[in-house]
Amino acid sequence: MRDRITCFDKECSKVADHIYLGGDAVARNREILRQNGITHILNCVGNYCPEYFKSDFVYKTLWLKDSPTEDITSILYDVFDYFEDVREHGGRVFVHCCQGVSRSTSLVIAYLMWRKGQSFEDAFKLVKSARGIANPTWKRVHADPLSPKSLVRMYRMAPHSEYDPLHLVPKILSEPSPSALDSRGAFIIRIFSSIFVWIGKNCEPEMARDAKAAAYQVVRYEGAQGPIVTVEEGKESSQFWEALSNAPNTLKNTVKVHEDQADLTIKIDDPGKRKVKSYDADFELFLQAIRGGIVPPFSLSIGGHETHIPARESDWNILSSKSISGVMKNSRAVMCRVYSDSALMKETDRERETEHTKIR
């Protein structure tokens, strides 16, 4: 296997007209990138590889670990947004991890499954034909369809990584129920054909904004048809609680609640006091970041360690705003259900124009 990896070391493998795969050796080679017409780069391993040529290419960075336990489902829709943005602008994105074997190929396979409606086997075969050493770690993730058959799904907004604490992503909860709600956060709940964005009483505006954007990703990539309804803690309708409590896979007569959720026997009429202990670390990380906190140092493949640096504004947020505009073209009415605040809509338009200027 090592010899095969060496053979592909300098290969910039074309998977589609706008998607190329490879490893760090290509990522640090400006000449190879230019020869292949690369305009954008998705670096999947920010803790190992820096953004080598920031003045020459448009970068996005993820912080994925090479482990089957790594949660890639939460960042898939952001990645799809990026790939689609590149395609729509006639660009080419180079997707890389350290060797172009696992992390990068997993993301591209998932994208092809959505974009082409392919099975995992067909998408994997296509990627394998382009890059013979492709060996995705997260096969179990691809086994689940991107358009879930389950009647209820619940996501909580949380930082993608401690190295990018302002990049908030929707992390799916294995046991959707009212007891999983936390007054500090924002949650997306898909029940049957309806999508709710539940905003906790103590939720920061930045998190609420990103939750609404993520709800649009659910509409776009999961094919959800129902309206998006924003629900503020303390102002929930009885229909909301009934739908969440009685939906399949959630609360029925009895609920299995995690030990760290045992203190959530809080009445519905007691807003602002819902708290799930297992979320504490994520909330502390996010709050420290928006207050000007420091991200931890990380090693770089070029040698040495980057020193502690201030938390940086995530540029993934602007991309999510552009994705909203794409869905809005197909459903203007639904857009108004979520963004009733006209000032927020204007902010989205300004961000979209700024990003468009940067890319062009």
Automatic annotation (TrEMBL):
Residues 11-153 form the Tyrosine-protein phosphatase domain. One of its GO terms (molecular function) is phosphoprotein phosphatase activity. InterPro entries: ADF-H/Gelsolin-like_dom_sf, Dual-sp_phosphatase_cat-dom, Gelsolin-like_dom, Prot-tyrosine_phosphatase-like, Tyr_Pase_AS, Tyr_Pase_dom, TYR_PHOSPHATASE_DUAL_dom, Villin/Gelsolin. CDD domains: DSP. Keywords: Hydrolase, Protein phosphatase. PANTHER family: MKPA PROTEIN, PROTEIN-TYROSINE-PHOSPHATASE MKP1. This is Uncharacterized protein. It comes from Spirodela intermedia.
